[in-house]
Amino acid sequence: MDEHAQILGELVKSVQILEECKEFALLVPEVRVNIVYALSNAESTGDVAGIDGRITVVNGYPKAAGLPKFGASDHMARAILEIRKYRPEIRAGINFKYDERLKKIIVEYARLKNLSVGGIDRSKEPEKERLSLIKSMPWKIRYLKEVYGFIPDIFYETAGWGKEPLFVVVSAEPIKAASISVEIAREYARTLLNL
């Protein structure tokens, strides 16, 4: 099977995992969710497939607005391309909302699953990077490398001027990223029931 077709098929399976998890709707941020998967030799955002129109919430469930296609993502695609400079095995990623309750759940989840967690403090971002879409992503990924010595499996960005705080899960393939995300969503929903 051609690599392009394989990538699109894996994204379809990943979206099914997300859409079947009602609890994941709790993690959809205002900017919506995207899940991406890069070609093994990806060099540009056109080499990274994502969900056209992103993933939103319909009738209380996560729902993809469109089908996977190459070039459908900008932000997550640029993130994966930057991350691959330090961790070339990483080809997939997903974003979802950030809050303090979720952060506590993720830190514990990562400890139990032997995953690494880190954070990007947007208040430390220099103005010239902050004001540029092109320069901001390299700065954020470099920040993780400088602070932690590596790029964590799960990381968050704090809020910035006009920027929503988000979590990102990265992995070698999208089914794993989707599976991690739904496990976190289910635990998050359980804690909300206990309020």
Helix content: 40-55%
Spans where pLDDT lies below 50 across 5 or more residues: none
**Average pLDDT across residues?**
94
In the CATH scheme, what's the topology name? L-fuculose-1-phosphate Aldolase
Proper CATH architecture: 3-Layer(aba) Sandwich
Spatially, the strands of the biggest sheet line up as 5-2-1-6-9-8-7
The count of domains is 1
The helix/strand class is alpha+beta
What does this structure look like?
By secondary structure, this protein is α+β, with helices and mostly antiparallel strands. It has a single domain (3-193), classed as Class II aldolase/adducin N-terminal domain (L-fuculose-1-phosphate Aldolase, 3-Layer(aba) Sandwich). Helix content is 41%, strand content 20%. It has 6 helices and 9 strands. The chain has a 7-stranded mixed β-sheet, sandwiched between helices. A hairpin with an 8-residue loop joins β8 (154-157) and β9. α1 packs parallel to α6 (174-193). It is globular.
Task: Itemize the secondary structure elements and their pairings.
Blueprint (H helix, E strand, L loop, with lengths): L2 H17 L15 E4 L9 E4 L3 E4 L2 E4 L3 E3 L4 H9 L8 E6 L2 H14 L3 E4 L6 H4 L2 H16 L5 E4 L8 E6 L2 H20 L2
Parallel strand pairs: 7-8
Antiparallel strand pairs: 1-2, 1-6, 2-5, 3-4, 6-9, 8-9
Helix pairs in contact: 1-6
